[in-house]
Amino acid sequence: MKTFVTGATGFIGGTIVRELLNEGREVRALVRSGSDLSNLSGLDVERWEGDLRDTDSLRRGLEGCNVLYHAAADYRLWTPRPAEMYRTNVGGTTAILTAALEHGVKRVVYTSSVGTLGGQGGAVPATEDTAVTFADMVGHYKKSKFLAEREAERFVSLGLPLVIVNPSTPVGPGDVKPTPTGGIIVDFLKRRMPAYLDTGLNLIGVEECARGHLLAERKGIVGRKYILGTTNLSLRDIFLMLQEITGISAPRIRLPYGPVLVAALLNEGFSRLTGIAPRIPLAGVRMASRHMYFDSGRAVRELGLPQTPVFPALERAVEWFRANRYV
Q1: Is the dihedral of CA 138, 139, 143, 145 positive or negative?
Q2: Calpha distance 64→197 (Å, rounded)
Q3: What phi, psi does 226 have (nearest 5°)?
Q4: Separation between Cα atoms, residue 41 and residue 208, nearest integer Å
Q5: Is 169 helix (H, G, I), strand (E, B) or coil?
Q6: How many other C-beta atoms lie within 10 A of the C-beta of residue 117?
């Protein structure tokens, strides 16, 4: 029997595929026509061409598979057509989980996000049970993932044996797009980071994040959520780590939030007129007004999630971006 992986060409999904192959698993990877397949290069996987918006391709792709990892998502802080993001993140989740339920898939691991959780910016790191509402979501990505997570919970109520994982901020090799966080690392390497905002993130090595997915398949409780993260760090501390790794000076100027917010508003207004992605996404600035710290204690206790230091993961990210000519 095979394991079906959506998002297999992406950052987290591609690393999940490698972890599965390391365990001797057979993998069928969902790939969209025209996708960058570099994260699957040289891997012994069955490539299944389809799309989350093509329900028939999902039904046929799941035939003969007993496990599903749904890691695909449209992850952007800005999009000129928000409806497309909702069709992928919400509609696509409904479609793949419907197919999984019809096929009687024995286990589903759904990749959500810490962005769907509450308590962000509070004095105490948020947990899976911190109160949250849709009104707390900033930007279309978080809103769409919040709604998709509610869909995942609905399918649990229908009998689908599904576990939810909420990755924090993965870093490491294979960040092909790159993600917004990977973009920050690339900009730092290009010396395009003269200043910083007072914000914070929870980081995790992408390999440990993928391992957390496999642990959730084996040990996770159906219907339960697990934060996959390791270390809470201020953005300034992240830059200091990158300085130690690269020898490039970390920015010393801390920008006030207000002027950056105004600049983002103007930048996004220009983007709406031109269709060109903003250099300063408004959603990103609004998220940066809070320290997004999280507590991964449940995943550590119940799944055995590794708590590996993130410094080596940042080193691997820098090495990968350089080796692949992002800088």
Answers
A1: negative
A2: 49
A3: -135, 120
A4: 21
A5: strand
A6: 25
pLDDT at 302: 98
Cβ neighbours of 251 (radius 10 Å): 18
User: Is the CB of residue 209 less than 8 Å from the CB of residue 189?
Assistant: no
Residue-wise pLDDT tens digits, 154-184: 999 999 999 999 999 999 999 999 999 999 9
Ranges of residues in the chain whose predicted pLDDT is under 70: 122
Query: Crossing angle of helices 139-157/92-103, nearest 10°?
Result: 20
Identify the residue whose tokens are 């928000």: 82
> What DSSP designation does 89 have?
I
CB 57 within 8 Å of CB 49:
yes
The edge-to-edge listing of strands for the beta sheet with 200-205 is 169-171, 200-205, 231-234
pLDDT in tens, 269-291: 777 778 787 877 877 777 777 88
Contacts of 125 (CB under 8 A, 6+ apart): 119, 202, 232, 293, 294, 295
Place of tokens 């953005």: 235
What distance in Å separates the CA atoms of residue 149 and residue 93, rounded to the nearest whole number? Answer: 9
State the pTM of this model: 0.94
The domains located in the chain, with CATH, are: 2-177+203-232+293-310 (3.40.50.720)
Angle at 204 between CA 135 and CA 23, to 5 degrees: 115
**Distance, first Cα to last Cα, the chain:** 41
Tokens 């229908």, residue located? 158
pLDDT of residue 40: 97
Q: How far apart are CA 30 and CA 116, in angstroms?
A: 25
Query: Structure tokens of 209?
Result: 């994040």
Output the furthest CA–CA distance in the chain (Å, rounded): 56
Tokens for 115, please give them.
């962005």
Instruction: State how far the Cα of 161 lies from the Cα of 3, in Å rounded to an integer.
Output: 15
